[in-house]
Every structure is written in structure tokens, then in C-alpha cells.
């Protein structure tokens, strides 16, 4: 019996030794062993040691993303129900006026972003994000996934800004910065919900300031966008463009693209403009904006030379509207506006942006250039008038040559500038309400006149601010110029509008 027990104990000890041997061997040899598992992958240390500045920058990006993202929301919009329409369908029913056919009404759904502006639920977004939304069709989704039905507070299509409201409290409010301090080359971060991807953060730099891209289909539209190469895609609209301090400096609005996706250029409305618009919308439900009452254009080197300026600066007054604030203040066609309340303006959209935050009754001081002199005009802004017309600047001069009708008129050719003029007939003069007979009859493509937007059918009413009525008086002024000089024409276009056209006499 004792031998049997000893034999069993011996066998158990042998088994334990064998098992231990297998374990030891498995740590040193064989496929899938610890030797394979302990193969060293990768280098011993990173190739670059981050200095304090680089680490601080990386930390800053992470801090901005963490702090600013909660204040950016997703907005889901369901549009109003409407019957489908199309040219072919309309043409079909035109031939069957008594045919009754019930077309089902359709709704569509889209998405964008928004920025929380107040703790009690006011949210800034784009007008185009919530446009055509059904009465109960705006839903706001917070970063923490809470959902709210939102009410529309107000919209401003001229700046593409809108405000919605949710019934909530203690929301994470975005810090709003000062877009006047934005500079090209500055780091920036875009936060939004592109392509259905919630809370997406992208980074880039400010690549341009004051960009006008022509997306607002109104002559009074204000486009003074901040341009960035931070990736912006559909769904980012209404979201935040923030600086490295986490302050919102713009509301992301549009992209420059040929495929409806990011191609390197995004555009944001400056937050200073957004704030003035949003405040009006919250307080009044609409924007009560003041206007100077002028149509304006850019001043380039040629315009500057034609007006006796040493460099291109300011904004050209192309036309003054009848009964406008500008007319009341004595602003005239052809004036060049240098500043508004001592803030320089060198592009039309800069002037529009400064005025966009003002209200009817507000006074602004314009510094202008006229006839080689600087002067100031104090303008009391007025509300926009839908019936404004262009103020007449015709001097009532009559032609000193008798009008000829019924036969082709002789032409004057200005080959260096690339255009010709001939005498306008009496009927055309009456239709345009001008005394000048100097009508542009030909403009050669790609020549100076063509590149400066002089066109066939324009009637020249001024040259170098002197009224012209006859071909000979116009020819005399042009011929007085030497190569390198500039001449500024005021022309009446076929649609009745008046514009200034500056051209430089080409050097030999």
C-alpha cells in the first residue's frame, strides 16, 4: 500500500516537473512563444523632441477643441411641404387647364450648424440653413446629444445671418472675439457638423480678409468674408470659426468649390458684423439698417491716376440715389470716400460692412476726395427705399452740332484704347435722357477699353469731369492726353445706369 502511494506521488512529481519544463521551454522557443511576442518594434525614442513652443501650440489646439466644441450645435431643418414643380409639368398642364390631378406635397430635410450665443438658448446660424423651414421644422442637437425644438427669431438675408431660440438654460455659451483683429496667416479652427459628422474640428490659417464672392443675390448684400483653408464642407454652415484663444471670429458660411465639397477655400462672416445683426434680430425680430444711398465701385491704380491720387485708395461713388442721405449731405457722383468715422475704406464691401451695423438716424462722417481736395461730409443715414432712383447729374447742355438721323454717322476711332464712338441719334438721346451725342459704337476685345468694361451702346456724358455733348469736344479731351496719362469717363449705359470708366493711355 505504501509502495502504491509512493508510486502515485512520484508520478505526480514527474508530471509537475514536465509541466514546468514545458512552460520554461515555451518562453524561449517555438512558434507563438514569448520569444516571438517580445520582438522589439519601433525605435527607442521619437525622432523629434518637442520644444516648449511646439508643445504649447499642440496643447492650445487641444484646449480650443475641448472648450469651444460644446458651444457649437447641429441644426436639422425640415422644409415646408410643397408640391413638386418643373418646367415639363407646367407645360403639360397648360394644355389641360380643366384636368385635376392631386400632386403629393413633398418635404425635404437638410442640416447645418449653429453657435450658442446666450445661456438661455439664442443660437446664431446662417439664413440659408433655416430658409423655408416648416413651423416646427427646426431641431437643435447639442454636443451632449440633447435635442430641442427651436423657434425662428429672425433672419437677415443681406448678411446671411439668422437667429433661432430653444427653451433651455445654462447652455455652454461661445466666447465671441473681435474680427477687426483678424490677420492673414493667423491660425484658425473650424467647428461644425459637416457631411453628417457631428462635432468635427479642422484647422488652417486665415488666407484672406474682406473677400466678396457674390453669393448674396442683392445689390445691397454685405459680403466681407474671412477666408480660411480650414476644411469646411456642407453641414459646416452656421458653425464657428475660432482663433487660437477659442474665441469665435466668424460664422462659417460658404466654400469655393467645383464639386460641392472642400477644395481649400472656406468663407466666414466676421463676428463683429454677426453680433450687430444678431442683436437687432433678438431685440426686434428684424434688422433696421441705415443706408447712405450710393452705388459704389472699387478704385484701382488707373482710377487713382485719373483722379489725381498718388495711390489707389478709397471707394468710388458711381451714383447717388435721388432723395438719399448722401444727396442730402452733398455727396456727388465721382466722389471718392476715404473713410467712415476715421476708419479707412479701400474696397466697396469694407464700406458696406461699416455701414451695415448702423441704423436710420445715425450720423457718420465721410472723408471724401473731390476735385483734388479732401473734405468731410456728415451723413444722416436713412432707411432703404425700394423706389430710389439715380440722381440726375446732367447739366442741361445742348449740342452745338445739329443731330443727324436717317443715315449712318461718321465714327471717331481711338485705336490705342481700342474703341470707337459715333453720333447718337435724337431718339436714343431722348430715351437715355442725355444731351450727349457721343455713343460707343465699337469696343475691341482685350484692349484697354474692353478690360475697363466700356461697352457698345454706352453714351459718354463726361470726360475728366467735364460735360461732353459733341464728338469734337470729346475728341479734344482725349487727344490732350499723352501716353501714360489716365482719363475718366462717365457713361450712361443702355439700362439707364451711370458708371465711371477709367482708362490709361498705353505707352508707345
List the helices and strands and how they pair.
Layout: H1 2-26, H2 34-37, H3 52-68, E1 72-79, H4 87-94, E2 109-116, E3 122-126, H5 127-130, E4 133-141, E5 147-156, E6 161-166, E7 187-192, E8 200-211, E9 225-228, E10 240-242, E11 248-256, E12 265-270, H6 271-284, E13 290-291, E14 294-298, H7 301-306, E15 315-320, H8 325-329, E16 336-340, E17 343-344, H9 348-356, E18 363-370, E19 373-380, E20 382-383, E21 411-414, E22 419-423, H10 426-432, E23 438-443, H11 448-451, E24 459-463, E25 466-467, H12 471-479, E26 486-492, E27 498-504
Antiparallel strand pairs: 1-2, 1-4, 2-3, 3-6, 4-5, 5-6, 7-8, 7-10, 8-9, 9-12, 10-11, 11-12, 13-20, 14-15, 15-16, 16-17, 16-18, 18-19, 21-22, 22-23, 24-25, 24-26, 26-27
Task: Write up what this structure looks like.
- 22% of the residues lie in helices and 31% in strands.
- It has helices spanning 2-26, 34-37, 52-68, 87-94, 127-130, 271-284, 301-306, 325-329, 348-356, 426-432, 448-451, 471-479; strands at 72-79, 109-116, 122-126, 133-141, 147-156, 161-166, 187-192, 200-211, 225-228, 240-242, 248-256, 265-270, 290-291, 294-298, 315-320, 336-340, 343-344, 363-370, 373-380, 382-383, 411-414, 419-423, 438-443, 459-463, 466-467, 486-492, 498-504.
- It is elongated and about 120 Å long.
